[in-house]
Description:
Layout: H1 2-38, H2 43-62, H3 64-104, H4 107-115, E1 130-132, E2 135-137, H5 154-169, E3 174-178, H6 183-197, H7 199-205, E4 219-224, H8 240-248, E5 254-258, H9 263-266, E6 271-277, H10 280-288, H11 293-296
Antiparallel strand pairs: 1-2, 3-4, 4-6, 5-6
Helix pairs in contact: 6-7
The chain binds zinc ion (ZN).
Amino acid sequence: MQSSKIRFQNKSKKRWPIIVIIIAGIILIITPTVWLGLHNWNLDESLIALNLDQSDKEPVDADPEPQEKPEQIPDSEDKETAPAEKPGKTETPTETEKPEESKESPTPPVEKPADNTIYIPNQVLPTSPTVKEGIILANKQNPLPSNYNKGEDPKARAAFEEMAAAARLDGFEIVAFSTFRSFERQESLYTQYVAKDGQEAADRYSARPGYSEHQTGLAFDIGEKNFEQHWASSSFGDTPAGKWVAQNAHLYGFILRYPLGKEQVTGYMHESWHFRYVGVEPATDMYTHKQTLEEYLGL
Ligand SMILES: [Zn+2]
């Protein structure tokens, strides 16, 4: 029995390696077979799948590079978009240039009124006065002939007397302390003013000979009797009489010729005492629309 047991043990000892080899062989055969079966029994597909599995692993390591590269690409795209933005930025300057152009367009109207305070250099006096819509115009751009010497206008005088009568009823004794001035008289006055205050200052409050509205015979400097201290002074506009004239003159055909804040339009500083006869209808139009004569005539 012992010998048979030993034989069995010897035999089993000899069989174990064979069994291991057989099992290993089976595994070696089954594994490729199963792999092949998983890939539709296609050898190429199975081999590609095998390589892909390996390449799948490689990109995992390579991913940081492609990720870094895409990150670099946006950088370069930024650089590309940056020049694209640069034209955009150069478009914005053109947009800012446009406002500059639009700034230039309002500038001429600003300069245009500013010109009204300035005489046209070396201007020769005309042979006939400027008349627009039946209204004689005399300002720093539209002088009168030196021989325009019609004296005080009778219609203007009649209108003033009518206004003075109405003012009297309201308790104000108004007078016209200066109306018609000849070319020669204005020449004398202007020369005195220039000698006293200099030409620049004189040009603000006095007209050069040929440019005075008083030469038309239609301009009336108005003041209150016994209140001479306010004559030809801005303070007249603050007196009750001055306010009355300012509010009622248009009803008699007169306009406040040089209103406050319109120096660049009319060419002269505010003169609360200087009124100009234009007729009731134009005067009322200008008073209602707060227009100067230049604005009313579209100059
Ligand atoms: Zn005057």
